[in-house]
Amino acid sequence: MNPRKACLACLERAPVDLLEATLWIAAEHDPSVVPAHALAQVRELHQQINASLPMLPLSELAQPLLRQLNTLGFQQDEMLPLRAHAALMDKVLQRRRGQPLALAILALELARSLSIPLEGVNFPGHFLLRVPGADHLLDPCGGRRLYPAECRQLLARQFGPQVALTAEHMQVASPLQMLQRLSRNLRQLHISNDNDLAALIDAERVMQLGPVLVSDYLARATLYQRLDCPQAERFDLERALLLSEDPAQRLKLSERLGHLPASSPSIH
């Protein structure tokens, strides 16, 4: 089974093997990655953290879990420019640095193995966590509690004060959504570091994992443009044009399509 199929197979299990799926994503980019070895590292982490958690009800152990991870060195990767290893789980386990989403997925796996209730929250710009029913969110990068006022501040720092906090920002993220978001993160990181072929692998995975946005087609079209694949670029631009509801964007897409060579005629 190739890494992509192995990743998708993890989503069909009950419960979903989210962390293992991220390791198969890493294996797509580096054939030397052995998910079983990385999972053994996570089991060692489980033992370390389990021995250090306070004697509290399970519903109160999510924040101590995140603080223990932070004490063990798992922190947000602040290196600039940010590179793909901040989102590749094997590298996150080795370096103990990563993007909030990668750290959150690790925390969710440990919480599951320790029977600690915890769920992912698809907060824009900075993935968060929550104990079901709690009146606050948790930052996966250290465990800080975020109440609505702090969430508004975080949103304003990411997107400006004009963006209002809504219930949509607080929605629980499914495993599929988390993997798709991770794939989008990797796509952007590979693009930013001029690794177009790696970015294309991520772009194709995004398409397989869930509902596709206009921006997903545009990102892949741009990759095809850079890789000199005009027919594939045309396909994605045409799909983006069908999905777009923005008149200005539709005009730009039409103009861009007009500059591409005509589609090859079908042979009958």
TrEMBL record:
InterPro entries linked to this entry:
SirB1_N
Residues annotated as domain Protein SirB1 N-terminal: 37-183
Protein origin, superkingdom: Bacteria
Q: Which family does it belong to?
A: Belongs to the UPF0162 family.
Protein name listed in UniProt: Protein SirB1 N-terminal domain-containing protein
Biological source species: Pseudomonas putida (Arthrobacter siderocapsulatus)
Lineage, opening ranks: Bacteria, Pseudomonadati, Pseudomonadota, Gammaproteobacteria, Pseudomonadales
